[in-house]
Amino acid sequence: MKYLHTMVRVRDLDASLCFFNILGLVETRRKESVQGRFTLVFLSAPADADRGEVELTWNWDAEDYGSARNFGHLAYAVDDIYATCQRLMDAGVTINRPPRDGHMAFVRSPDLISIELLQKGESLPPREPWASMPNTGSW
């Protein structure tokens, strides 16, 4: 058995692609279905291009998907959690659970999909302003 991908439905394909590109994922392939009225975009972290992907499914007709909290989350290991969170914040992404412990943070996509960021290897020492930063939303 081989893990292939995780599919998430998105409301605004452009906003979602922008978010996941800022996060560091790259588009690996795309499929448009005029008959089915949907677009599938597959993304991966550059280091995982031959492994699992995230599939963004955009249905062309408006549809209410409800809350994304029942999905759970996607998780990615990062080389430097502080630098990653700073890059995301500089791009306008809200850090819902800051990396106060130098190990874990959570952000959310425009479609409220929780993304967990985990420090590769050992946790980094606590660092300001992260160590005293409060949570800014649910994660």
Spatial strand arrangement across the major sheet: 1-4-3-2
Task: Note the beta-strand portion.
Answer: 25-35%
Distance between the termini: 31 Å
DSSP helical segment count: 2
Q: Which percent range fits the helix content?
A: 10-25%
CATH fold-level name of the largest domain:
2,3-Dihydroxybiphenyl 1,2-Dioxygenase, domain 1
Class from helix and strand fractions: alpha/beta
How many domains in all? Answer: 2
Report the average pLDDT across residues. Answer: 88
Number of strands: 8
Output the CATH homologous superfamily of the largest domain: 2,3-Dihydroxybiphenyl 1,2-Dioxygenase, domain 1
Name of the CATH architecture of the largest domain: Roll
- What low-confidence regions span 5 or more consecutive residues with pLDDT below 50? none
Description:
It contains 2 helices and 8 strands; from the N terminus they run E-H-E-E-E-E-H-E-E-E. It is of the alpha/beta class. The strands form 2 sheets. The protein has a 4-stranded mixed β-sheet with strand order 1-4-3-2, covered by helices on one side. A 4-stranded mixed β-sheet has the order 5-8-7-6, with helices on one face. The relative contact order is 0.19.
